[in-house]
Structures are given as C-alpha cells and as structure tokens.
Specification:
CATH superfamily of the largest domain: 2-enoyl-CoA Hydratase, Chain A, domain 1
Structural class: alpha/beta
Distance between the termini: 32 Å
Number of domains: 2
Number of strands: 9
CATH topology of the largest domain: 2-enoyl-CoA Hydratase, Chain A, domain 1
Radius of gyration: 19 Å
Largest sheet: 6 strands, mixed
Order of helices and strands: EEHEHHEEHEEHHEHEHHHH
Strand content: 15-25%
Shape: globular
Length: about 260
C-alpha cells in the first residue's frame, strides 16, 4: 500500500487524491496500482455513487515519473508491450469501465498521463491558468493518440501531440472537453460539489448511459442506437426509474437511491 495516493468516502463520493506533491504528483507503479484498485473497488461499493480525482499540492499530475521507472524500486516489465499496457492505460480502462461518474479536478499542470487520466474521466473541472500538454514526442515515444482525438478532434490532438507544446487549459475548455473553469482556490470545492450532485443521481442509470457512450463511440450509428436502446431498457428496470415517474406525477424533485 502507498501513501502517495489517498482515498476518502464522504457524501457518496470516493475522493482519490494523488499525494506526491513534491514531484507534482508524477506517477510511479505503486500509485498506478493504487488508483486502479480504488476505481475497481468502487464498482462494488454501494456507498460510492461518484468519484472525484484530484491532486495535492501545486499541480494535478505531471505525468509518468520517468526518473523512477526502470529503477530497482520500480522495475520495467521485460515485455515492452506489457510494460506500456500496464502503465497509466490501466487507469484509463478502469475509469472508463467504472459504471459510476468520475469528476476530475485539474489545477497547476496536467501533463502526459495526468491529462490522459483527466480525459478518461466524465467531467473535468479546471482552474483558470492551468497548463496541459502531451509531451510524449519530446521523450521520443508515441503515446496519447486516443483520448484527446475522441474528446475534441484529430487536428487539435495532432497539434498537441506532434509538437508536445504546453497549452492553456482554456484551449481545452473552448474545444468542449472542460465542463467548468473556475478560480484556482475554488477548483476543489466546485469539483466536489459536482461530484456530490452526481452522487445524488440515479447511479445505475448513469452507469448504463456511460457504458453506451463508450461502446457507441466505436460503433456505427445503427449499432450505437441499439446500445442506447439496451441502456434505456436496463434503466427502465431500476428503482430510480420508478421514482422518477412518481416524482414527475407528483410534481416534485426525485429522490434517487442509486438502485
């Protein structure tokens, strides 16, 4: 177990905090494993109805810790494909597979794997003036080719990836990938408030929509609509669907249980 990632459950929200501020929360193997474990455990914890991922200190996450990886403490896997598959992509998969909404709070820097984690989340709240980058090209490695292109578009992703340049978070907000910009001293409060609001929603229904969104992105329109219908059918069998109908008939706000 590592102290470089902390977790806390309150108000229906699992908060996962990257807790290595002296290194701008750069990721090493123990942190990756801890984040993946927390996300996978959250899928089976009924008290968790939303997740908030944030970073301690002056930055959200500066990406992979290239200095530590390959050392005795953090050895590389002998198979290169396995080595890169079990790095931060594990976090991406666990985040996208979690049938509960994830809010990510960005401040300071979100670079490389840090930006990828944010893009794998469902809602991004960011502090004005934060800086983002996908600097893989500057390290002579090809990565980061999936999430940004899907969240925004090919040409913007190509610009960031091929140059490795640093960009203001406002660019990502204008492109539609950031839900809300706020002042740096407000980012955690705003992100937590959004997570609490999502936690009060119909969790199973949100999970069904999330799954359909991800699966539909890889399918043609006809198949995507079939996935949407399947999600609709699934949601119609939940207690929250029945509560939603009652609340509408009674002209009141629904009180969802997440079931």
């Amino acid at each position: 177990m590592t102290t470089r990632v902390t977790t806390e459950i309150r108000d229906g929200v699992l908060e996962i905090t990257l807790n290595r501020p002296e290194a701008r929360n750069a990721l090493e193997n123990s942190m990756i494993n801890a984040i993946v474990t927390a996300l996978r455990d959250a899928a089976h914890q009924p008290e968790v109805r939303a997740v908030l991922i944030s970073g301690a200190g002056k930055a959200f996450c500066a990406g992979d810790d290239l200095k530590n990886m390959g050392t005795d403490a953090h050895p590389l896997h002998p198979n290169p494909f396995t080595e890169y598959a079990v790095g931060y992509p594990q976090i991406v998969r666990a985040a996208q597979e979690l049938p509960k909404p994830i809010v990510c709070a960005i401040h300071g820097y979100a670079m490389g794997a840090g930006l990828e984690i944010a893009l794998a989340s469902d809602v991004i709240v960011a502090a004005r003036g934060s800086l983002i980058s996908l600097p893989f090209v500057k390290r002579g490695i090809a990565a980061g080719t999936v999430l940004l292109a899907r969240a925004v578009n090919y040409h913007y992703a190509a610009d960031l990836l091929f140059t490795g340049r640093m960009a203001d978070i406002a660019e990502l907000e204008r492109a539609g990938a950031v839900a809300q910009l706020c002042e740096p001293d407000e980012v955690h409060r705003v992100a937590h408030s959004r997570a609490v609001a999502l936690a009060a929603g119909p969790t199973t229904v949100i999970g069904a929509m999330k799954r359909a969104l991800h699966l539909g992105a890889d399918a043609g329109q006809a198949a995507a609509f079939s996935m949407q219908v399947a999600a609709t059918v699934e949601s119609s069998l939940t207690e929250d669907f029945a509560e939603g109908k009652r609340a509408f008939a009674e002209k009141r706000d629904p009180e969802f249980s997440g079931k």
